[in-house]
Amino acid sequence: MGSIKLDFREAEFPRNGITVNAGCIMGSVEVLVPPGINVDLSGLPLLGSMDNKAGIGDQGAPVIHVKGMALMGSVEIKRKEVKKPADKKKFGRGNRRSRRPGR
């Protein structure tokens, strides 16, 4: 029981694509792909679900082949934009909200 998130949004793919074997028992696997990449989802959901919400990518783009198995769980593909870098000023050392008492 549990979940895993595979984030391929910043990955570089070979021209012929990659293959991901994803399986879960009473859990979930979420695969995040960048815009333009094609995804081929195949496998066996046993009392579970497999869902490709990524849609169709660009013609001629690499393909991520996801071979899944979900036993009372789920394998889900989602398309999301590439993550933007975190604002270092916002999370920098000098902007801590909590300080030790008496200081």
Describe the structure.
- Helix content is about 5%, strand content about 50%.
- The chain is mostly beta strands.
- The protein has one domain.
- A 4-stranded parallel β-sheet has the order 1-3-7-5, with no helix packed on it.
- The chain is flat.
- The model has no long low-confidence stretch (mean pLDDT about 85).
Distance between the termini: 44 Å
- Indicate the low-confidence ranges by residue numbers: none
Order of helices and strands: EEEEEEEH
Rg result: 18 Å
Measured by DSSP, the beta-strand proportion falls in over 45%
Sheet of most strands: 4 strands, parallel
Beta strands, count = 7
Widest beta sheet: strand line-up: 1-3-7-5
Produce the secondary structure layout:
Elements lengths: L1 E6 L10 E8 L1 E7 L4 E9 L2 E4 L10 E9 L2 E6 L8 H4 L12
Parallel strand pairs: 1-3, 2-6, 3-7, 4-6, 5-7
Annotation keywords:
103 residues, mainly beta, 4-stranded parallel sheet, 1 helix, 7 strands
Outline:
Helices cover 4% and strands 48% of the residues. The model has no long low-confidence stretch (mean pLDDT 86).
